[in-house]
Amino acid sequence: MDALGSPRRVAVFGGRSEIGQAIVHRLVEDGTVEVVLAVRGAQSESGHDFGVSVTVSEVEYHADDPASIPNSVRECFNRFGGVDVAILAAGALGPVGDQLDASLPAIEALSVNSTGASVTLLEIAARMREVGFGTIVVLSSIAAERLRPSNFVYGASKSTADRLALALRSELAPAGVSVVVVRPGYVRTSLSREVAEAPFSVDADAVAQSVQKAIRNPRSRVIWVPSVLRVVGALLRLLPAAVIKRLDRS
Amino acid sequence: MIQSERLAGWGRTAPVTVHRRYGTTDSVPKVIGASDEMWLARGMGRAYGDAAVLAGGNVVSLSDDRLIIDEDSGCAVCSADVTIDRVIAAAVPRGYFVPVTPGTRLVSVGGAVAADIHGKNHHHDGTFGDHVRWIRLVDGSGVEHQLLPGSKEFEATVGGMGLTGLITEVCFSLIPIVSPRMIVDTYRVSGLVDLMSTMKELDAQHRYAVAWIDVMSAGAGLGRGVLTAGDHSSESEPLDYRSPRILPVGRLLPPVNLVNRASTSAFNEMWWRKAPRRRIGEAQSIPAFFHPLDGVGGWNRLYGRHGFVQHQICVPDGADEVLHEVVSTWSCSSIPSSLNVLKRFGPGNGRPLSFPLSGWTLTVDVPANGGSALRSTLRFIDDLVLDAGGRHYLAKDSYLRPAAVERGYPELGAWREVRNEMDPHGRWCSELGKRLGLVPRQPAVAGFA
């Protein structure tokens, strides 16, 4: 981070995430010049273009393979001599509907959103604590706040990293590291295209704008996109399961 | 002794955690020679940005405190940790003064060399590095060398921001004086055009000259200021000197930013009006003339927990209109600022990373929490300055990107080559060096790879 709170080096874990890339585009406006994209099938020359003044590099990252994650995180931090902002954007949608079997999508969602994201988060936290600065952005979801029958695997898997991030806030604060948990509702991306659009839906740039604002004034916080979802989330927490089920089917 | 510590620059922005080490010139080279970790020297921590911090790395401070004033040859030989304050206190009673002092005497001699500091007498005496006779420096392998002016290693080290190695000892010339007093002329000037023309006139007549400038004033009063020009008194008198006490005001301040538009406007108005329209030949003490801010210990805490940015640029001769535009830009912005300085530079010394260029230098302090207004104002001003062939002072910088330094310092490539020869394994590093691409890319934390 520089004196103005602008991140110079940004790493996106799950670098092909549309939301992750939208955040990078926003951060470039604030002076980000070095970007590491942690992706599956990393290329020596990244095809991503965030502007003429930005150097983009790719690092091999398999969010569904926890054993390989520490190496990937280390490589991301070493690529530009450190990371100012780490964006945890890897995600898998999981099964759509109320299937109960351990289908491949369910396994993938649990593995990527839960185990992979948590391991990545812990590795990033350890490195940032050592150097005493940095911001971790965890792309969570309103689904992590209150599980719904229609996407309970996704919600449950997202809630693991969400809760871990909340717990890390107090651990990392004395070291000068902040954690931003982002809980959007329905975000219009290619990943979510198969799911019916929900109320309060936004596009990726709306999420990016909110994250940009949070990073400019670094302190640990939970942000909802759009902000009205904070109220919706609070209401959902209070509703009985039967009502949630009925709402989910309507 | 090693301890983990949170450190920032004098601007108190972007703190990081470092491994803090203290040692002497006898012990430190051995430790560095046996180490494969990253190192950085830190003196008094008066660089405003991230020049003296290294996240997760070893930040070493020397504690030798050796100083010899050689009255016969008129030079001082000291360990790098000795402060300008201590040199002045030892030299003045012997009839000497430091060749160059910045606005604070609380900088180390090692830091003075590393930043190639300038003072109110740059138009007359050049930078501190211009008076250095030799330097002893520990390179990246832990080997100590003596560097002489003219060698490429010396030229890269003076102004090299501590990235060529650890400066352990310095020999520099002093200037003779016969009195501990300064004879000072003060002028209150009502606008930028008058301020600049008066400064040009006074430069030829005085060894020291500097102006406080109000960059918040507008209209006819745009760039009004108070100009002080002085010389050492030529009347022989007892050479008494004692470092004045520092009031620990900073620690008493609340942890909030007290610098806002209302407080700075009021301060600027008061400061300008309290200055005499014209006062000639006033006797002032050395601290009063050179180091007025040192009386207020911890004044950097005025800006609260977000800290502040000191923006110092220089624009070359022939680009006076750019300076006008820079001052106008500050004036039009809503950014509060009081501690601002305008000064003329004499010719530069040609060292690759030495800041001064023949022309004007403007220093403006602003709270770092200015948000997008501050960001866009700085971006606009920086483009103006770089387009005009100007540059930024690295000892003050805390936010620039590599492209700005590449443009401002055309010899940067040559400097990098010498630096890499002196430190092939990249042991010497700083956050400034990483941010501006001055050093090769390193692993994030040594020993963590």
Keywords:
heterodimer, A: alpha/beta, Rossmann fold, two-stranded parallel sheet, 42% helix, globular, B: 449 residues, alpha+beta, Uridine Diphospho-n-acetylenolpyruvylglucosamine Reductase, domain 3, 5-stranded antiparallel β-sheet, 19 strands
Q: How would you name the CATH homologous superfamily of chain A?
A: NAD(P)-binding Rossmann-like Domain
Structural class based on helices, strands and sheet pairing of chain A:
alpha/beta
Helix content of chain B: 25-40%
In spatial order, strands of the major sheet of chain A run 3-2-1-4-5-6-9
Pair of chains with the largest interface and how many residues each contributes: A-B, 28 and 36 residues
Low-confidence stretches of chain B: none
Taking all Cα atoms into account, the compactness measure Rg of chain A is 17 Å
Q: What fraction of residues of chain A sit in β-strands?
A: 15-25%
Provide the domain count of chain B. Answer: 3
Q: What about the largest sheet of chain A? A: 7 strands, parallel
Strand and helix order of chain A = EHEEHEHEHEEEHEHH
Q: What fraction of residues of chain B sit in β-strands? A: 15-25%
Structurally, the number of domains of chain A stands at: 1
Large-scale geometry of chain A: globular
The helix/strand class of chain B is: alpha+beta
| Average pLDDT, all residues of chain B | 93
Sheet of most strands of chain B: 8 strands, antiparallel
Helix content of chain A: 40-55%
End-to-end Cα distance of chain A: 46 Å
Distance separating the two termini of chain B: 24 Å
Unreliable runs of chain A, pLDDT <50, ≥5 residues? none
